[in-house]
Structure formats: structure tokens, C-alpha cells
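Table 4 source record.
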Amino acid sequence: MPDVGAPSVGPGAGGALVGVLGGVGPLATVLFLERVVRLTDAAHDQDHVDMAVLQHATIPDRTAFVLGRSTDDPGPVLAADARRLAALGADFLVLPCNTAHAFAGAIGAATSVPLLSMVDVTVSAVLSSDTWAGRLSGPRPEAVGLLATEGTIASGVYLDAFGALGVKALVPDVAGQAMVTSLIYDGVKAGRGGDLTALEGVITNLRSRGAGAIVLGCTELSVAAEATPPALLPDVVLVDALDELARATVLRAGRRLRAEG
């Protein structure tokens, strides 16, 4: 079998091979791959990030299992996929699904290949001074709003990570969460699209409760953000977890980020 872990000879030789645990969901994975390409400072094909992508769309629903609505455990499936990517020579793994990070332990136990945590890089971005430069004045927020699946919220992956650093993660009320869930499942996952305009009231409510930033903690919401009119909530600091994972992936792979402007 060829050594897919070895980078091609050329201007960008020397980068790592990224193993992408994809398919959760499929469109969000495609968007992640596109973001990695667009964020990479590349003048040649060889300057881009090498990736082995496993678009495993039939992994059991993460939220359904976390909430006890299904007995189909995604953990062993994700672990098996991690081993498959490790066998291909992946230097590190990425998982462009926030809810699936509830199963990071199963992935870590399956292989010695490290998982670059979407949760960790997103929390770091929220607390980074670079996130706030030129956008809002004042110190880092004492509270952030979290837009995510019910599974992500119930798993505590973000609430615990923010809480450990003294930042409170605020979540929508019952009616607001129903709107978030509908956009994720009835809109993006169902192939019907949608944008963040549907969540304008939810975001406004989170801000009124003290959220200094809003985290898009679901990759389907990242897809919805792509279709959102630029003028929507221009003074809101939105931190997109998929964007942060893409940036961190480029850097971890040994490439440079393209200047954004």
C-alpha cells in the first residue's frame, strides 16, 4: 500500500496528513474541507493541506444517543473510523461535528493519533484578544451564548470547557432551542437550507441575558451562516466553531493561513 502519509514533493512539501472523521453531517464536512482550502496561504496545489477524508454519513445520530432516544452508540463507530484513518497514516485527526466531541474519549482510546479538539480551539478563540480586536471594546466576555444541538448542550462539552475558565455558557430557552433544532434538522440536515435570520430573536435574547459573543456550536449552523445576509446582526461577535477548527487544522498541518481582509 502506498505511503499516503508522505507529502508530495513540491513547494509545500513537509506538511502533515490530516485524517477527517466526516459525514456528521455530510454537507458540514464538505464546508469544512472548503474552508481549509480557502484559509490556506497557497500559491500551488502542493501548498495545500493533505487530507484523508472518511465521509461516513451512516454513523448513528449523536444527539439521539446522548439524550437516550436511541441505543445506537456512535462511539464504537467513530473509534473504528479513527483506526481506519490511523492506518492510512494520519498524523492527527479532526472531527467537524461538535456533538460528536462527546465521544472524544472513545476516539482517544482507539488510537494514539491525536484528535484536534474543535471545542478547545473554539473556546480559545472566544477568549483570544484577536477575536475582539476592532469589533467590540472592553474585556473578554464573562458569558457567551451557545447555539448548538440538544446533544451538545446535554453532553456539557462546551459548558464544562467554558466553565473551567470562569466563563458562563448561556443556552436558549425551550422555545429558542426548538428553533435552533428545527434549523439544524428540518432545514440543513434535511436539505432544505435556511439561514441564521430564523434565529435573530434567539440571539437577541442571549445578548440581553449577558452574552458578549455567540458561538455557532453546530456545523449545520455554520452551513446556515454561509447563506445568511451579511447585514444580519452586524454588531454581534459570532464565533463559528467550524471556522476555528479549519484555521487550527491549517496551522497544525504545518501550513500558513491566508491573510483575511
